[in-house]
Design brief:
With 380 residues, the chain is α/β, with parallel strands linked by helices. The chain has 2 domains: 301 residues, TIM Barrel (Alpha-Beta Barrel); 65 residues, no CATH class. Helix content is 43%, strand content 16%. It contains 14 helices and 15 strands. Strands 2, 5, 6, 7, 10, 11, 12, 13 and 14 form a 9-stranded mixed beta sheet that branches. α4 links the parallel β5 and β6.
Length: 380
């Protein structure tokens, strides 16, 4: 048995997309979604789909913030801001009214009992573990009674340091350097003077960086830190949650899972390092939050971020399910439990598009970002 990780519904998508191209896709989906919503078609689409498919919708968020992430006051990755507080509250109200939000523990019960999940089952997840999850997202979830799972990189919870990819964006936005020379990712250019240009450059660097192995990724980022005199340090705009905050949320009915120890692309690590990332994160979760059945979300989560070896170590460490960042939904079977797809919520996702994405994910879901050579088979 094998699972094809290519996103066939969306077609091949290049790893480096321009901001205008992404915005164009968003606006087209939003226009179509508004038309379907205005005509009252979304409910019909969802009912017809429920008759044909028994799968689960898993929403993927990163950050909830009440700032303009593209403005001059925000010095980190704007693409990781999934929603404002008001957007998020409206989305969760709709989810609670029209779907059946549950946690992974409830999903696992259906698997073990050999039952399909009920129609309109949906889960809410957050990757990375930013402290705005606690301060801004968690109060909304508690107010509305919607469960969610927070996948945290345990080493960052311990240290309080920003994530490496975030710090790379921060350096590119703030460094006074006149040129950027990164032969590893084939970038040789003058540093743009405007913030929009620097953000576009940061997107190119990140896309190229994630094609490298782990050691090369680390050396590129640490090399810039040394060259520009910008060593990573705690920053109020990019702060991980604390263990005490996670304990509060867990006691309030939220689930906490793994996003590795250091937010590394697991399939790009040497085998021993990869195993240490997975087992180390489970050990930290047990130490700080007690024994419980936990789920892992593979950092970055694309076609080259996890493979059979990663899945084998996740099983061996005791994780009961695994989430990718490949776009879509998944039927519940033993072949999909460690490669669950998710639906990406982005700050450009409007009201109609969010509702349409839940009703008809194949049409309105954001496409996975992957090279045109994708189509990797993950054997089971």
């Amino acid at each position: 048995m094998s699972i094809n990780l290519q996103d066939r519904s969306a077609g091949p998508v290049t790893a480096i997309q321009t901001a205008s191209g992404a915005d164009s896709g968003n606006s087209r989906r939003e226009r179509l979604a508004r038309a379907c919503h205005g005509l009252g078609l979304l409910g019909t689409l969802e009912r017809l789909r429920s008759m044909l498919r028994r799968d689960v919708r898993i929403l993927a968020y990163h950050r909830v913030l009440d700032v303009d992430p593209t403005g001059p006051g925000f010095d980190f990755d704007a693409e990781l801001v999934s929603a404002s507080v008001e957007q998020f509250r409206e989305q969760m109200r709709w989810l609670r009214a029209k779907f059946r939000p549950i946690g992974f523990a409830g999903l696992l019960r259906h698997v073990r009992e050999g039952r399909d999940p009920p129609p309109r089952t949906a889960l809410v997840t957050f990757d990375d573990g930013y402290d705005d999850n606690f301060h801004l997202a968690w109060p909304v979830l508690a107010e509305l009674g919607v469960p969610a799972t927070f996948f945290v990189s345990t080493g960052h919870i311990d240290s309080g340091l920003p994530y490496a990819y975030d710090w790379l964006v921060h350096m590119l936005l703030r460094a006074p350097a006149p040129r950027l020379e990164l032969p590893q990712v084939r970038i040789h250019c003058h540093m743009p003077r405007d913030r929009q240009g620097r953000r576009a450059l940061a997107a190119r660097v990140l896309a190229g960086l994630k094609r490298l192995d782990d050691a090369a990724q680390g050396e590129l980022i640490s090399g810039l830190e040394r060259a520009w005199g910008m060593p990573r340090r705690p920053h109020p705009q990019c702060r991980p949650m604390t263990w005490d905050q996670l304990r509060v949320m867990q006691a309030g009915g939220m689930e906490v899972g793994s996003h590795g120890v250091g937010h590394r692309m697991l399939a790009k690590l040497p085998p021993a390092r990869m195993a240490a990332e997975i087992h180390g994160s489970m050990a930290a979760l047990r130490r700080e939050l007690g024994d419980a059945e936990r789920v892992i979300s593979y950092p970055v989560g694309g076609w080259d971020a996890f493979d059979d070896a990663v899945i084998g170590q996740a099983r061996g460490a005791g994780f009961v399910m695994g989430c990718s960042y490949l776009s879509g939904t998944s039927p519940l079977s033993h072949d999909t439990l460690y490669a669950l797809r998710r639906l990406h919520v982005e700050r450009q996702t409007g009201r109609a598009e969010f509702r349409a994405m839940l009703a008809a994910p194949e049409v309105f879901g954001h496409p996975s970002r992957m090279p045109p050579t994708a189509g990797v088979q993950v054997a089971r």
